[in-house]
Amino acid sequence: MIELFLVFVIFGFLGVLLVVMNKLLGPKRSNPTKESPFECGSPYLQDGINPFPLKYSLVAFLFLLFDIEVVFFFPWALVFKEIGITALIVMFAYIFILLIGFIYAWKKGAFQWER
Amino acid sequence: MSETIIILIKVVCALVWFLLITLYLTWVERKESAVIQDRIGANRASILGIRIIGLFQPFADAIKMIFKEDFTPRFSRRFLHNLAPFISFFFVAITISAIPFGDVLRIGGQEIKLQVMDINVGLLFVLAMLSLGIYGIILSGWSSNNRYALIGGMRGAAQLISYEVALGLSLIGLIMVYPSLNLSTIVHYQGELLFGWLPKWGVFLQPLGLLIFFFAALAETKRIPFDLPEGENEIVGFFTEYSGLKWGLFMMTDFMEVLIVSTLLTTLFFGGWQVPWLAADGFHFPWGSEWLLPHGIVVIFQVAAFNIKVFFFCWLQILIRWTYPRFRYDQVMDLGWKLLIPLSLANIVATAILLSI
């Protein structure tokens, strides 16, 4: 337990130090051009972030599903050698159901990135 | 009390090793790319006129970076803007504490494990910390308050999330073969022999798992074949609005990930600190002869073996980065979802069938 604490404290301290170091040691100069956001050379048009299309939400949903699947796999893999043939049958059923879902998502076009 | 001091020494040693190798990886990358492109590469940095093929270059870079201006743009979300590089650095660096560098070292009746934290869910700890690093990317994109940075951050998050699944699934087969989540136990399992002569390394038992893990891990390092989050020479990435050491933290994170992936590949698939046929008291060769060694020499052999394997994989990853062109976005996502995930499921099924026969 103490090692976990020490690791977090030492690594965390180093991280904070690295982030703060420039503020302590670096120069401070400013001008209006520096303060404007990076816009690939075109004049700066508006502040902040516009509403943007969240195409990646579908990826996030699929990730959630599959990552939970991975979580279920870990304990099964750990005790696989002890349980033997029962584990095999149970997991085949599980993988089969998952595969149906996977193929459904594929056929529905969840993996078409150009649209 | 003395235990605490030992732990402290171990943490500091691991940290120094990790940071030194990371710094020198930047130099190795420059030299290796120079050799590939028929240039000389960084060789100018010197101390008192002595320059050993530019070996001081990383320190010169680090000192330069420390004295840069701390530039937080006025339009950014200040707190998150400072938090993002910290998260990115911290959660990658901390994984080194779960990696076993060697077996037990005995000094003066005390047994010291050459591993900072011997956690019984070490593998899960490493995976969890690596995936927490995604927050650094999303936060840096979001807090910059710049449309290009935001889209870069989203792109990065989508890519890392996609490969996270394949990364996790490719390790299931490995856990079935070595039923443990403790990294040092996994390494101990790999010390056994197959057919009496072949070391029982993950590469021989899980070749497909190794391939999937390697590709997924390459994508997680977000370097060139997969560098869509921040293609330096084409697309604006998520840390456009950063400068100085905070930018340096993001760049260092890339190299740290290369190092962590190398250590993970070594630990999981190439026997960690195991040298073939080296037991705790010396070599026992499969043809019957023996070469007994004192304890100290055995430990040195183990740590050296670990380091050599790690350096080899660092070299290999840099070679890949300077050899292949960049994937297109849909190719990256296709590779992750349509190839690696079905393949890793097939790997699990095949391993299960082979193990139960």
Unreliable parts of chain A = none
Structure classification of chain A: mainly alpha
Quaternary organisation of the protein chains: heterodimer
Into how many domains do the coordinates of chain A divide?
Answer: 2
How many strand units of chain B? Answer: 7
Question: Could you explain how this protein is built, in words?
Answer:
The complex is a heterodimer of chains A (115) and B (357). Chain A has helices at 2-25, 57-78, 80-83, 85-107. By secondary structure, chain A is mainly α. Chain A is flat, with a radius of gyration of 25 Å. Chain A starts with a helix and ends in an 8-residue tail after the last helix. Chain B has one domain. Chain B has 357 residues and is mainly alpha-helical. The relative contact order of chain B is 0.13. Chain B has helices at residues 2-36, 57-66, 78-93, 122-132, 134-143, 147-177, 183-189, 202-205, 207-220, 244-269, 295-321, 329-356, and strands at 104-107, 110-113, 193-194, 198-199, 278-279, 282-284, 290-292. The longest helix of chain B has 35 residues, at 2-36. The chains are: A mainly alpha (115), B mainly alpha (357).
Characteristic key phrases:
heterodimer, A: 115 residues, 2 domains, 0% strand, flat, B: three-stranded antiparallel β-sheet, two-stranded antiparallel ribbon
